[in-house]
Amino acid sequence: MEERTGGFASIGGALGGFFGAIGRFFAEFGTAVVKGDAFVKLSLLWWGAGYARRKQFAKALIMTLLEAAIVWFTLSFAMSYVPKFSTLGTVQAEQVFNIATMQSEWNDYDNSFMILLFSLFSFVVWAVALVVWMRNVVNVYQLQLQAQQGRHVNNFVEDLKSYLDEKFHITLLSLPVLGIVVFTVIPILLLILVAFTNYDQQHMPPTNLFTWVGFANFSALFGGSITSTFGYAFVRVLGWTLVWSFFATLTTYFGGILMSLLLNSKLTRGTKLWRTMLVMTIAVPQFVSLLLMRNLFSNTGLINTFCSNIGLTGFLRDIGLISSSTIPFLSAPGWAHVMIIIINIWVGIPYQMLIATGVLMNLPTDQLESARIDGANPFQTFRHITMPYMLFVTGPALVTDFVKNFNNFNVIYLLTQDVYVTTDQFMAASQAREVDLLVTWLFNLTQNYYNYKMASVIGIMVFVVCAVFTLIAFNFMIGGNKEEGYQ
């Protein structure tokens, strides 16, 4: 109970610290505006005013040019898209006959996706500019206080040197932060916005427009629409995704630990041979391995041929387990689910074995020796020392593996593509299959059916589930002072 309370307290503390920092930032800005001199207040309009007053002309020039760039960006670029953001365009693409040229030409049409994308980009630029503007006012107010107190005010060269010394962390993080904003934040925000539109194959820009539909897509996904089958499919796909993630993670994790213990046991012969054979499976690209397994277990594959020759297929048909002339290893519900997990065990255990081997080599020997002296048997030692230590060291990696399996596109796609065909009409109506994960369903919706609106809603659900699970699991795994028990 204390561990759980500590986990939630950590999450609450992190959120409290985040909102506290935002509150302090706005409080500093308010203080600067109220108590600043005329040049600080003038900085609200001319960003370089405060620096010019303190004779930091290089900074004044940089901030003035930055302000001019924001104004130019707003007038020449953003204003071409942002005013249309509320409708995502109203002018449909069509060809009109130009009497002057005697040719059919495209009209000046609107592109809904470009309007959405560039409007979002403009909002992000304006948000960053707002933060810079507020921070700039706070900085020039601090310069005012330094001047009033008779303290030294850095010149431009000294400020540059500080970004290579005590503020070097800012210099190092600037480029990664920019990359995160451009390649992570903006795509996620775009994904969220598309979920509130009717962007699909019938509303495909540039020839067609799409527009806002509010929460209609979410209503369709959660069964709010009688005519929609997406709610039916979502519950089943999410259920299989969670089941798959749980078993795929635990089977490979504990299988890797057990395999490592067996190979490190003094009773095992030929450990180098077995370890080499297992490591070789890692060297083979997973793409090749999974395609090979798909061909082996297909309805016309080698395994089905062998089972038919030895009479196993007929026996299973006689007792009612199958109704076809082949064993549907990867082509029927139930069979495919079990086979996918089993094949993943074969693919995943060698990698987990290597991780477990490295951790087991660092087990606290004093605790193992104490347990042996106290008369603990191997199972008790494993339960009370080995396994708790493994969970402590590899706990974060275990959480990461669960999230990775939750989005494990390769295994599901490569094993079932062109092999599994759903017979459930409700699933087929939503372009889903019983063996699909949320991520493979999302891929199918976008690549084959161009249903970007529902794919975006599913993408949001994937993000929410993974984020909530990761936050809770990480805080439970690393909460407290567990490391003290292994010192």
Short descriptors:
two-stranded antiparallel sheet, 2 strands, 2 domains, mainly alpha, 487 residues, MetI-like fold, single chain
Q: Secondary-structure blueprint of this entry?
A:
Blueprint: H1 2-35, H2 38-42, H3 49-53, H4 57-76, E1 95-98, E2 103-106, H5 112-148, H6 156-162, H7 168-194, H8 216-221, H9 230-264, H10 271-283, H11 286-297, H12 302-309, H13 312-318, H14 335-360, H15 365-373, H16 378-406, H17 409-416, H18 425-429, H19 438-447, H20 452-478
Helix pairs in contact: 1-5, 1-20, 5-7, 7-20, 9-14, 9-16, 10-14, 11-17, 16-20, 19-20
What does this structure look like?
- This protein has 487 residues and is mostly helical.
- It has two domains: 36-214, no CATH class; 230-486, MetI-like fold (Orthogonal Bundle).
- 68% of the residues lie in helices and 2% in strands.
- It is built from 20 helices and two strands.
- The protein has helices at 2-35, 38-42, 49-53, 57-76, 112-148, 156-162, 168-194, 216-221, 230-264, 271-283, 286-297, 302-309, 312-318, 335-360, 365-373, 378-406, 409-416, 425-429, 438-447, 452-478, and strands at 95-98, 103-106.
- The protein has a two-stranded antiparallel ribbon with strand order 1-2.
- A hairpin with a 4-residue loop joins strand 1 (95-98) and strand 2 (103-106).
- The longest helix is centred in the first third of the chain and has 37 residues, at 112-148.
- The two termini are 24 Å apart.
User: Structural class of the secondary structure composition?
Assistant: mainly alpha
- Extract low-pLDDT stretches: none
The chain-level mean pLDDT equals 86
Please write the CATH class name of the largest domain: Mainly Alpha
Oligomer: single chain
How many strands? Answer: 2
How far apart the termini lie comes to: 24 Å
Instruction: Write down the overall geometry.
Output: flat
Can you write the helix and strand succession as a string?
Answer: HHHHEEHHHHHHHHHHHHHHHH
The proportion of residues in beta strands is: under 5%
CATH architecture of the largest domain: Orthogonal Bundle
Sheet with most strands: strand arrangement = 1-2
* Integer count of domains: 2
Q: In which range does the helix fraction lie?
A: 55-70%
Write out the CATH superfamily name of the largest domain.
MetI-like
Named CATH topology of the largest domain: MetI-like fold
- Separate helix tally: 20
Largest sheet: 2 strands, antiparallel
Cα-atom radius of gyration? 31 Å
